[in-house]
Design goal:
Helix content is about 45%, strand content about 15%. The chain is an alpha/beta fold. β2 (about 10-15), α1 and β3 form a beta-alpha-beta unit. The strands form 2 sheets. The chain has a 6-stranded mixed sheet with strand order 1-2-3-5-7-10, sandwiched between helices. It has a 4-stranded mixed sheet with strand order 4-6-8-9.
Length: about 250
């Protein structure tokens, strides 16, 4: 199973479940996460959704070893998962239990509240891969952090520790590792004690002015990624990754 779910009263915990791959995303996992978010959308017994990771990672982002099966197109894919997340009508919380890379970092901009373990780290590695941003992070990150911090995070590809993430506004609270899920569930249960209609109406008023802009940012980023994917800088980054060395971008 690529995801697991567990209900705690009106709170559902959705866990990325590829611990052997540090919860990196392949096509099947995009589909699995999208399906679970859509199921939580339609289930009136679920008032709050918490997303976390199994094992020592939250998510290592895209699985670079994944080779999509062209004969079997995805049911949802990345685009469908993104749409399910931004359309999710109820409170969406993250419990970042370990490293978060790529989408494991940019998902912070799509959540309502983010809780992060003290030892966890986040990274947007896009420029280090000869690529560019995704998941509407070019919109969400400046809104969360202010433009200069967002510029640094998206341009530098540097690691961010939990306290830095909190200072930047990416994270609501930093929690001791062994208390992360317990604390996140306490916060989630407090939200779940409120009427579902009030939660949905309030979130819709918060999201309605942003949703189309998120879709537009995602579309622009997807085009940018497409223009760079497979280019010389990206090829050098992939080669360096397989050879376990630092990429040399001096010619690009």
């Amino acid at each position: 199973m690529l995801t697991t779910t567990q209900n705690h009263g009106a709170v559902r915990v959705l866990a990325f479940n590829r611990p052997e791959a540090l919860n990196a995303f392949n096509g099947a996992m995009f589909d699995a996460v999208a399906a679970e978010v859509l199921a939580a959308t339609d289930d009136d017994s679920v008032k709050v959704l918490v997303i976390t990771g199994e094992g020592r990672a939250f998510s290592a982002g895209m699985d670079l070893a994944d080779r999509p099966d062209q004969a079997t197109p995805p049911e949802h894919g990345f685009d469908g998962m993104f749409e399910a997340l931004i359309a999710f009508p109820k409170p969406l919380l993250l419990a970042i239990n370990g490293v978060g890379v790529g989408f494991g970092c940019t998902i912070t901009g799509l959540a309502d509240l983010v809780f992060m373990a003290e030892s966890a780290r986040l990274r947007c590695p896009f420029t280090a891969l000869g690529l560019t941003a995704e998941a509407a992070s070019t919109m969400t990150f400046p809104a969360m952090m202010g433009p200069q911090a967002a510029n640094w995070v998206l341009l530098s590809s540097q690691w961010l520790d939990a306290q830095t993430c909190k200072e930047y506004g990416m994270v609501f609270e930093v929690v001791a590792d062994d208390l992360l899920l317990e604390h996140t569930l306490e916060r989630a249960q407090l939200l779940a004690s409120k009427p579902l209609a009030s939660l949905i109406t309030t979130k819709e008023m918060l999201m309605a002015p942003r949703r189309e802009a998120l879709r537009e940012a995602h579309e622009i980023e997807t085009a940018g990624l497409g223009s760079l994917m497979g280019g010389p800088a990206h090829q050098e980054a992939v080669t360096a990754f397989t050879e376990r060395r630092e990429p040399d971008f001096s010619a690009f």
